[in-house]
Amino acid sequence: xxxxxxxxxxxxxxxxxxxxxxxxxxxxxxxxxxxxAALMMMLYNVATxxxxxxxxxxxxxxxxxVEQPLEEVSKxxxxxxxxxxxxxxxxxxxxxxxxFATRSRETVYDLVIEHVVAETIVRSWPLDKSLVDRAAIEAxxxxxxxxxxxxxxxxxxxxFLTRSMSSNPEQAGVRTALLGxxxxxxxTMLLAFPIGVGSAIYLEEYASDTLLNSxxxxxxxxxxxxxxxxxxxLGLAIFVRTLEPYTSGAAFGVLDGNxxxxxxxxxxxxxxxxxxxxxSAQEAIRAVPQSIRLASYGLGATRWQxxxxxxxxxxxxxxLTGTILAMSRAIGETAPLxxxxxxxxxxxxPTGPFSKFTVLPIQIYQWTSRPQxxxxxxxxxxxxxxxxxxxxxxATAVLVRQRLGRLP
Amino acid sequence: MLIENPLMEARQVTLYYGAxxxxxxxTLQAAPHQITALIGPSGCGKSTMLRCFNRMNDxxxxxxxxxxxxxxTHDLYHPDIDPVEVRRKIGMVFQKPNPFPKSIYENVAWGxxxxxxxxxxxxxxxxxxxQAALWDEVQDQLRKSALALSGGQQQRLCIARTIATExxxxxxxxxxxxxxxxxxxxxxxxxxxxxERYTIIIVxxxxxQAARVSDYTAMMMLxxxxxxxxxxxxxxxxxxxxxxxxxxxxxxxTGRFG
Lengths: 408, 258
What we know:
The structure holds two protein chains of two kinds. By secondary structure, chain A is mainly α. Chain A folds into two domains: 49-154, no CATH class; 175-405, Orthogonal Bundle (MetI-like fold). Chain A is built from 18 helices and three strands. Chain A has helices at residues 14-49, 62-65, 75-85, 88-97, 105-117, 127-132, 134-144, 158-162, 175-206, 211-223, 228-242, 244-247, 262-286, 290-298, 303-332, 335-340, 360-368, 373-405, and strands at residues 51-57, 120-124, 149-154. In chain A, strands 2-1-3 form a three-stranded antiparallel sheet, sandwiched between helices. In chain A, helix 11 (228-242) packs across helix 13 (262-286). Chain B is an alpha/beta fold. Helix content of chain B is 34%, strand content 26%. Chain B is built from ten helices and ten strands. Chain B is globular and about 55 Å long. The mean pLDDT of chain B is 90. At the A-B interface, helix 14 and helix 15 of A face helix 2, helix 3 and helix 6 of B.
């Protein structure tokens, strides 16, 4: 075939390639829009449940107790109000639990609401419905509960973080679960980070190319894909049962517990996220240019000095990226903790590794499975708390990573 | 014997990477305070030979070496010799500039600190950077990242870093191959200054460079069965480049080599 400059075609496939490029671009935009829409819907769904109208009934109308609104009454008056309206026995018991002199105004106020006013929420609505259909809601309540009053209630409020678990939805909070989550993540990371990074260092920098090591390596890769509930079974068998004397704290002088402690949960969770940390740390270490190692060895550095002073600092941002992922996983996991024995209803705060505990995802799960609509509002609010906690921890880790990544 | 009192000497060195032979029966001497150049075509084992002198080949799995590498009277491959100590005495500059991703100051200071240097670190850094002809260019930016320097500056920084551990021998593996001609000339000038204090062994692809800077030259080539590299001629540079005794050397240095 001879070359004819007049008739030669310089773009035989250009048109179809451009068409494919256009299709690809539109697919990308469409996928982004769908993802954003899904995210917005979820956030809307959660957010609309965190505040809204509630219908409340009182045993005693607050206006019949004092003249000014109850919110403005001082602590001393509230205590007096409480003493005048509840049985002497109950008052003594409350005084015994914690003397009124040392209680804050807010907790006394809560007691008045709980025992004197005895406010109960009989029905609740999400925010969107509350705003659009207020008249219908009020008519409905007037028909069903003539004595009830309709008012706005913010489920998401500062006290939600500081109150502990309660069977009364208005009094319930996430303090116990939040503390449980924080304790568990702290201990999990303290265990998993050094072990994970150490394993990655060993596998990348020290381990020779033997059959045993390559079997270990492929097992670690596979472990990252094992269902988390199986880790829960493992944790139950090893940490809760077999190692109970240690995980319950009995070996360290804590005598009133069993193996279903924060320590057991953290050990289980550490096992679960170890493969994630190891694999991502290995990749980060492998990405460090060989020339840096050679330079270091050439100066007479030992293998450990090379690893510690040259390889790890360069790999650390990458290692932390994997660690952030693993930490998010640990905060969000529910299934293995149910197996390991997280409590679904406790009111005492965790005080250390040997405490009974619950965590935020389990609290959310427990609230969503309650029949009353009010607990679904609490679940939505707890989801907001969980998301904020997750974002806070991640942001901290990202900041640390950026500080480390800056040169020199 | 060509050299009376060599500082370093390879005697009948044969080296295998796993099953494949890389060097066969190589014998080479490096005179103190002289520059010895290794030249030859690609893949003939020049860099492998160089790395034998500070046991850098140990880092590659499945390397076997027979023969002797002598430094003064020590056999460097004797089981009682710590390769880490060898590398402190015998420094290395690599083909591609490879400063640490740290500050200029830290690049120079780190090796010295590893070696237990207890003196004034600022003075040492300045002295090494001056010796490497880099001080005037970087004295105001010692805290800046070494990666911000140009390629030629980075290579001089690598030389300064090597000097800071106070070695006796500096091995250079094609130190100018990634540099432009001007940076190359600066490094060559530097090498002539450095040989007052150090013994230098350099691998180079550039025959003019070998002719310009070295005192002794070893011509390496694959053996006739093309299995491994060996030295076919070794002598004073001037003699080797003017009256090579081996036909293959002459072909190579005159550019007739196929």
